Amino acid sequence: MTEQFSSDRVIVTGSNGYIGASLVRELKRSNIEFLGLSRFKVPSSKSIHSEKPPTVVPSHWFDSISQFKPTKLVLCDWQGVTAQKRDERDQYENILRWSSITQRALEFGVEKIVALGSQAELSSIQDGVTESEVPKPRSEYGFAKMEAYEKLKAMIESYSKEFVWARIFSIYGDNMSRDLFLTKIIRAINNQEKLSTTSLTQIWNYLHEDDCARALLFLLGSGISGTYHVASRRSLPLIDLVRLVAMYLGKPVSLDIGSVPFRRDDTLVMRPNIDKLSTLGWKELIPLESGIKQLVNVISGEKVVN
Questions:
Q1: Which residue, 26, 33, 219, 242, has fewest beta-carbon neighbours within 10 Å?
Q2: What is the pLDDT of residues 264-278, one digit of tens each?
Q3: Distance in angstroms (rounded) separating the CA atoms of residues 229 and 186
């Protein structure tokens, strides 16, 4: 597959974020030339880039594009993805940043742009939902993502360039935030804490970070445009995921299940259709059981710093 990228130069924004960093690792493994841009300064010793440190917005991003002259751009950065920030009006600042960086890239001849969407654009019941489903956002985050899509689509089409909207569902893996549901559950059961949760009857979908990165690489391929769901074929009730974690830890479930009500923007059923992505030849390689087992080993082995 990498032969189609032999002359490509890929810019990844949000390269020190979760999905952006996963994509960067895949680009490295595939020997594809890239430049990572980050919204935050990080110590060079902690940079995911071996050749050059990440570039910081806003002062250096535009210069980096003009110097690097990318053929493809992947927009992975987004501020405010946590549950606590999903209804803040600051969400719309992301649209301005994405529009500006896209305009600059188009002016310098970029041929293709891939931007990360979210399942938050859809309703709380996503049962067999396809890419043609009419969006029904439930938070400012979801509304901002949809507005970003509309603005980017119009801009990119005016230049007659390729545009892919990669709608991401739930991604997990060793590098995921330690403040998300899955990692909190692992720590709570490992430490036998009575963490308060919902009824855990939600049906969710989890795709490993490496499979997500490979999917984005497929979507970067030539001649592909449109909206694509990036998710696993398998969905399961959260209570089953909790039991799987407990089994791998060899400890009983210690949670206070049902003590937390559902949020207004909670997804109750996440069972997306991924036939469109699969037709490109992409396949999920990491089974949920092995991916969760690895994550459990990583999280349970970490030292807690007070």
A1: 33
A2: 889 999 999 999 999
A3: 27
- Residue 168, classed as helix, strand or coil, is strand
The β-bridge partners of 38 are 56
For the record, the structure tokens of 182 come out as 């899955």
pLDDT per residue as tens digits for the range 216-230: 999 998 789 999 999
Strand pairing report for 203-208 and 235-237:
antiparallel
Q: Is residue 187 part of a domain?
A: no
Q: What is the CATH number of the domain that holds 118?
A: 3.40.50.720
Provide the pLDDT for residue 85: 81
From the list 32, 26, 36, the residue with the least C-alpha distance to 68 is: 36
d(CA 232, CA 204): 10
Range of the domain at 63: 2-172+207-232+268-285
Domains of the chain: total: 1
| Residue 134 domain-assigned (yes or no) | yes
Q: Are 277 and 218 in contact (CB under 8 A)?
A: yes
How far apart CA 270 and CA 236 sit, in angstroms, is 9
Report if pTM > 0.70.
yes
Residue with tokens 């119009």: 154
For residue 197, tell me if it sits in a domain: no
SS3 assignment, position 298: helix
What gap in Å lies between CA 173 and CA 194, rounded to an integer? 24
